[in-house]
Automatic annotation (TrEMBL):
Residues 12-226 form the Glucosamine/galactosamine-6-phosphate isomerase domain. GO terms for molecular function: glucosamine-6-phosphate deaminase activity; identical protein binding. The gene is nagB. Catalyzes the reversible isomerization-deamination of glucosamine 6-phosphate (GlcN6P) to form fructose 6-phosphate (Fru6P) and ammonium ion. GO terms for biological process: carbohydrate metabolic process; glucosamine catabolic process; N-acetylglucosamine catabolic process; N-acetylneuraminate catabolic process. This is Glucosamine-6-phosphate deaminase.
Amino acid sequence: MTELIIVDHEAKAGELYARCVADLIKGKPDTVLGLATGSSPLAAYAALASTVKAEHIDMSRVRGFALDEYAGLDPSHPQSYRSTITRTVVEPLGLDPALVHVPNGDPATIMDAGRAYDAAIEAAGGVDVQILGIGTDGHIGFNEPGSSLASGTRIKTLTQQTRRDNARFFNDDIDQVPTHCITQGIGTILKARHLILLAFGEQKAEAIAQTVEGGICSLWPASALQLHPHATVIVDDAAASKL
Ligand code: GLP
């Protein structure tokens, strides 16, 4: 079932995420968080960091699994998703870095890394809450249009549209944006117990309309959320404008 919440500001969406996750961690100190990069989850991470501080929540046993990583970008590169997750999640939330995992985009091992990643998620007992952004083309993680709705973690080619969208992180130069990535599959994402997708701004309106009201279809990967028993979509008025 998809639950739709329209908020007037992304800070409000952040507060909703923070409340949900903080309560979960209080009851389950070794909660497994599904983590995403991109700008959409930033207000949610910031709100959770304030809640954790205000309510003195013990984060030392919280575990995390990121959705995706660029292929062939050194983990120490400032735009690698390992670096991004460290900067935006691990440090502000005071997580133990050893408990936070990011797929390994090393080209030498990437063909086997996906299966190992899915096995690690399963061994951890699965993801409790998965936060998601959405690409303008409806991708989640890096599952571009046409991705199998049953896919596991694997290497994928990035579309030109996604590379153009992400060029802003690489000196506005599309040639610096990696061409491949490793991403949790849609099947992997759907195994999380609760999905929370955040989208803000008019540029996400079409993707949100397809996600919530379109047919379930691999051309709009996020429409797979309709198959999930507990998916929450939180959007602002602009992202809701085509519903
Ligand atoms: C990247 C990430 C996605 C993210 C998307 C949207 O492609 N791999 O996980 O959802 O960007 O990013 P933003 O939230 O900045 O619009």
